[in-house]
Amino acid sequence: MSPSLRSRLSTYLLPAATAAALIVLWYVLKAVFQVPSFVLPAPHEILVAAWEERSFLWPAALVTVRGALLGFSAAVGVGFLLAMALGFSPRVKASLYPLILVLQMMPVTILAPIFVLWLGQGLPSIVAITFMIGFFPVVANTTMGFISVDRNLRELFVMCNATRAQEARYLRIPGAMPYFLTGMKIAGTLAPIGAIVGDFLAGSAQGGVGGIGYMTISYFSQLKTPALFATGLVACVMGFVFVGGVNWLHWRLLHLWHDSMVKKE
Amino acid sequence: MSPSLRSRLSTYLLPAATAAALIVLWYVLKAVFQVPSFVLPAPHEILVAAWEERSFLWPAALVTVRGALLGFSAAVGVGFLLAMALGFSPRVKASLYPLILVLQMMPVTILAPIFVLWLGQGLPSIVAITFMIGFFPVVANTTMGFISVDRNLRELFVMCNATRAQEARYLRIPGAMPYFLTGMKIAGTLAPIGAIVGDFLAGSAQGGVGGIGYMTISYFSQLKTPALFATGLVACVMGFVFVGGVNWLHWRLLHLWHDSMVKKE
Amino acid sequence: MNAAPLVAIRGLQKRFGAGPLVLDGINLEVGQGEFVSFIGPSGCGKSTLLRLIAGLTSASDGLITVDGTPPEKAREKMFFVFQDATLMPWRRVAENVELPLLLRGDAPGHRRERVARMLEVVGLSGAAEKFPWQLSGGMRMRVSIARALTVAPEILLLDEPFGALDEMTRDRLNEDLLAIRSRNSFTGFFVTHSVAEAVFLSSRIVVLGVNPGRVTAVIDVPFPYPRQPELRETPAFLRLLATTAQALRAVRS
Amino acid sequence: MNAAPLVAIRGLQKRFGAGPLVLDGINLEVGQGEFVSFIGPSGCGKSTLLRLIAGLTSASDGLITVDGTPPEKAREKMFFVFQDATLMPWRRVAENVELPLLLRGDAPGHRRERVARMLEVVGLSGAAEKFPWQLSGGMRMRVSIARALTVAPEILLLDEPFGALDEMTRDRLNEDLLAIRSRNSFTGFFVTHSVAEAVFLSSRIVVLGVNPGRVTAVIDVPFPYPRQPELRETPAFLRLLATTAQALRAVRS
Amino acid sequence: GEQRSAAPGPAPAKLEKIILQTDWYAQPEHGGFYQALVEGYYRDVGLDVEILQGGPNAIPTQKVALGTAQFAVGRTDELIIAAGRGIPVVALAALMQRDPQGVMFHPESGIRDFKDLEGRNVMAVPGAAWLTLVQLKFGIKLSVTPLDFGLSRFLADKRLVQQCFVTNEPFYIRQQGVDVGVLLLSEAGIDPYRIWFTSRDYAARRPEVVRAFTAASIRGWREYIDGDRQDADLRISQLNQKMTPEFIAFSVDAMRANRLVHGDPAKGELLGRIDPARLGAEIQRLSAIGVLDRAVALADVFDEKFLPEDVRAVREGK
Ligand SMILES: Nc1ncnc2c1ncn2[C@@H]1O[C@H](COP(=O)(O)OP(=O)(O)OP(=O)(O)O)[C@@H](O)[C@H]1O
Ligand SMILES: Nc1ncnc2c1ncn2[C@@H]1O[C@H](COP(=O)(O)OP(=O)(O)OP(=O)(O)O)[C@@H](O)[C@H]1O
Ligand SMILES: [Mg+2]
Ligand SMILES: [Mg+2]
User: Fold this and answer.
1) How far, CA to CA in Å, does E20 sit from each of A103, E2, E33, E60, E191?
2) With contact defined as beta carbons under 8 Å apart, do E142 and E135 qualify?
3) Counting CB atoms within 10 angstroms of each CB, which of A227, C111, D79, E33 has the fewest?
């Protein structure tokens, strides 16, 4: 088998094979346990529903994508900055970390009314909730990356009289990339969920266009279970796009030098 | 300032100072914006409510702790095993990763009725939901740790004719610890939230005792805002215990050798 | 030298990716019990050649066999002292040294004893409980050497093991290496920048040129084993030293 | 030697944590323009001493001043070639060499030019675009040397910079180092295991003993600068070499 | 832009901008307000009304109390509890004399009466006052499962009892060809009004706006239930995609059949009207189960002076 064929096999065929196997398993389980479609629809029913409901799902997806994208950007950006602050010095870390933990651990359901009151129902609140759900993995990972910098390189920077900003820019940030990207990947999978939950908690269907979260409640309350799963499908597609973006970034930033990517001959 | 005094300063005084500053800020904001207590209670009101509601909150906390602990263990254990599988070979990764992503990105609200149908209402479903919410950070981080192993050490193991199991046990697992622990920390903050959401979606007050999620809705629907925030406080305390445990483990496993912990003199 | 060479290299070429040739037209037969040193300028491909013999990288062209099989199949016969110490940061010194024995399933008692003996040889008995980051550069390298010595492999590949050591320690370890070899005879492949070391240790010295790495000279070292430290002072030794240095210098011009 | 020594070390003691003394009672005054080599057994504290002078670690007792101030305050005068190459894996060779100039804010044109020149000196012009993992051990170390040379500091601390290099490259770099020094005179602190190198480069050689590290001998090297390669063949050089080797050997016994 | 084509008469020079916060997405249970909006009844009285759709977290009480919205839709039991927490809100008028809330169950579960709920698993909003009231009144014990806004668990579990709107969920269950029984809470004497309300502060500052809004809303409701509701339904279905004509028809029919909006004239009930005695009794009930932090007087939660003359007149003439 040629290397290129083999790599194409891993990239496309294997996931497709797994997916196929799973779909078969899905049908089998559904048949064996006689799971009714209003609980777990068959894959084809979901696809049919997604198609039939496309005129609702598409605008809803656009609304949610906007919330997810903004919330994801906020989570990554603010998370990164927070991690920089935490990695900056043990004292800042000691001061801020508990606060960040509280933010992360306070169930967003409790804070949602405050968001709604201060930011209003709709996009700003949804973005805030998406942010809340996705920022901590970025903070935790990036901080770990910042404080795991190679000691020897740190001494090199000391000898160069590097300012803290230079040390951050040229040493800690590039060194933390593998961690940061992992955090970003987690945030990427959480962003669509965050936007959906946000839509749920603080959305409104103002102007007749709700997001996927609204559609989820709507289908759920109408017993349109295949359509409900279609919203899940939309969420997954969105998530795959986010994760795909992060994976591309991972490849771009690391493939030339990092042990996770470089194949030593 | 002696080193021990300084370290005690960072460990206790600084977080306490931040907390104090925040509480002051809280009171000030509340006063300036005239935020009424039914939207954002003052800290002392939350404490009073927590005390007054202790006969409800305590058993609820016990219920939720159980779900969170089991779900957390499942997330960490299964996540670790999944990551091992993913790190084992690029082919396994190509086959399984998309599936894991789907599991992570499918909104748990959609799957909840299936859990309830198959696992029944209550603890098993709550644990399953907590697991779903917390396992991916463990998988993503640990996998990254496994594939980031130092190339030179990998060659050493090749020269030692190490079996895959040996390579996993003596090289990849210890090498991935910094990543794994970070994933575990994220899972730790998510576990109480997961159990609360699980309580929400698949819990019940069978025998008259619901979990914290149940109490949250109950207080919300009764407009008992200070008590509502007290449930958030309980969630945070739980989360701190989890994260504290992970931090202890981090210290235990890494303080002797890892760059994030060792202070070079 | 032998009828059936232990390691045979024929027409070996190596390039990394689409890069230039690093090694070109290497031919070499090494018999059981030989000790072959490679010397040559920095970057000429010595480490690459050792890694090829160990099967850690594959040839672009040509053939390598170890004991008649491809190197990947003969790894249980070999051990490698890498150019970098390659210690596991989370294992203490003794644990690092113990690793190969552990992986190959030796009994704990035997492991402990061998580790202690080899740490003694490299002069690190006192540092057994330290972590790698607490060691000096030379100490780290000695840990790596001790690790290889515990294994007692049939073929030992050493990539500049003594480069970071002071002359006395180095001489002593040279002698220790020969002593160990006289007890359980192994075939050695040795990279060094010290001509004296090469002459003292080897049965044969291979001088490599650069761009691409080619064998420019092969020098047989006729002194019988066991060799005594005093050998270093003999005129014959000094003469061979000069010849070898000459051959090495010729590479550049 | 000078009225006001550039680097003054008095009663220096160093231990790590609660461990044993690593360095004990070190006294040393080094004037502007001197070149001091430290030799001694592996693990005796040479690197530690260099790191103390650079202010990378602090003394347990005693005093170090650099130009009259504590070392931490004098860092812009100093640069360090670490025992490990200490390259940033995500920067290419040229980018690694450029780093100190970039950090100190030199103009891009000037940086490019200096980087190219110093890569030329260490013989790595062809490897400018490679990543560290694509280099041989000796090449990595040469990148590190080139990086230090671009800085042209007042005080240069070199921790076994040439240990991983073949003799010819090493000799040539020795000479290059002296040539650079004759142009922009720096004060040098140099750790080596090669006595010949120490004698050829230094104005003074400090021999350190072990457990704890103590100054056991200080040898003045009277040859005037600039020194020519031929110096290595002179009887006076060889005599001093023997004396130094003697002093080093005495440490162990 | 609002559809004002149907609005009769010349537009007043300056309209008062106000916000009505509903408690859920647009649905026939809010029909009267949309009727008043699209038919221009609000504009006729000088109001520029924006109806904000609710959702799971609409928090109408808080919004009104803080002045983010001027009016909101809710229930009297919620209002009384809010007052018990010191939240200054007052009921203005009832949009429904009977609450559409009830519990639905599978007929084969053998439930005939609230007593039969003993020991059942009931999916409801935890903490809802009616749960306590039902248990007290019938001496039964319920096991509560948090409401998940879905119906699949009900459909899958023949023993599950679920909180519902008689105007809503049964439609979807029956659509699946499954029969469903409903017990209205009002049949058990747990009988809050569905109302609209405002804050004490706003009522004191802008009584004329409150009065105008209330009158126009009552007009909207009357028209919605008895007149031509086509435009309002169109608006509702534009705002909430699940509002199909069949569903709206079902809901309105259910409202009519159960006399939810007009009430029973025989009992003196009338669209808009809130009977102080009935409200007082509700305060008593809630106070008795201890969900009120402080004593609530009738005057704290209701001020009948904002009701139109004709609605009040009927009561006085009873
Ligand atoms: N960070 C540290 N913590 C504890 N002990 C240390 C540390 N660094 C060095 N040491 C100890 O200090 C002693 C001197 O180390 P140093 O690196 O200075 O030796 P060296 O003379 O440079 O040796 P080499 O020639 O092998 O590089 C060694 O015994 C080493 O174990
Ligand atoms: N993984 C790699 N990818 C690309 N090029 C490589 C790789 N490893 C080594 N090289 C190149 O191969 C050549 C030989 O490297 P090698 O490490 O074998 O040299 P060496 O003789 O051991 O040198 P030294 O004495 O400096 O250790 C060098 O030019 C190096 O740049
Ligand atoms: Mg090499
Ligand atoms: Mg050293």
Assistant:
1) 32, 15, 9, 9, 24
2) yes
3) C111
Specify whether the CB–CB gap between B136 and A182 falls below 8 A.
no
Q: Tell me, what amino acid is at B84?
A: M
Q: Is it the case that chain C and chain E have 3 or more CB pairs lying under 8 Å apart?
A: no
In this complex, is the C-beta atom of B64 within 8 Å of any C-beta atom belonging to chain E?
no
- 3-state secondary structure (DSSP) of residue C161: coil
Q: Give the position of tokens 């008692």.
A: C109
β-sheet with D215-220: strand ranges across: D78-81, D155-159, D187-191, D35-39, D204-208, D215-220
CA distance E195 to E95: 5
Closest CA to E229 of E210, E211, E243, E213: E243
Q: Which of residues 140-159 of A touch D (CB under 8 A)?
A: 152-153, 155-159
Q: Please tell me if residue E5 touches chain A, with a CB cutoff of 8 Å.
A: no
Cβ(B180)–Cβ(B141) below 8 Å: yes
> What average pLDDT score do residues E79-97 get?
94
Query: E87 and chain B: CB distance < 8 Å anywhere?
Result: yes
Bond into E126 cis (ω within 30): no
E strand or H helix at E184: strand E181-184
DSSP for E166-181 reads: TTSHHHHHHHTT---E
Q: Give the integer Cα–Cα distance in Å for D238 and C166.
A: 19
Chosen from E57, E59, E171 to mutate, greatest number of chain A CBs within 10 A: E57
| Distance of alpha carbon E53 from the chain centroid | 14
Residue A212 and residue A61 in contact, taking contact as beta carbons nearer than 8 Å: yes
Q: Report DSSP letters for B74-85, one per residue.
A: HHHHHHHHHHHH
Query: What band does E59 get if pLDDT is binned at 50, 70 and 90?
Result: confident
Q: Is C142 on the interface with D (CB under 8 A)?
A: yes
**Class of the domain covering C7-83+153-252:** alpha beta
Collapsed DSSP state (helix, strand, coil) of residue E140: coil
How far is residue D133 from each of residues A23, A212, D90, E318, measured CA to CA in Å? Answer: 43, 47, 10, 95
Judge whether A201 is closer than 8 Å to chain E, CB to CB: yes
pLDDT value for B122: 85
Residue A8 confidence class, pLDDT cut points 50, 70, 90 = low
Distance C19 CA to ligand 2 centre (A): 11
Residue ranges lining ligand 2, Cβ < 6 Å: A 264-265; C 16, 19, 22, 42-48, 83; D 134-139
Q: One-letter amino acid identity for E41?
A: Y
CA-wise closest residue to C87 among B95, B29, B156: B156
Cis ω for the linkage preceding D226 (within 30 of 0): yes
Tokens of C82: 């890498």
Distance D138 CA to ligand 3 centre (A): 7
State the first-to-last Cα distance of chain C, in angstroms, to the nearest integer: 31
pTM (whole model) above 0.90 = yes
Which CATH code fits B41-262? 1.10.3720.10
CA distance E272 to E263: 10
Q: Do A265 and C16 touch (CB under 8 A)?
A: yes
Tokens of C167: 């002359």
Those residues with Cβ within 8 angstroms of residue E199's Cβ, 6 or more apart along the chain or in another chain: E64, E65, E67, E88, E89, E90
Can you tell me the distance from the alpha carbon of E280 to that of A38, in angstroms, rounded to the nearest whole number?
Answer: 44
D→B interface, C-beta within 8 Å? 16-17, 57-58, 133
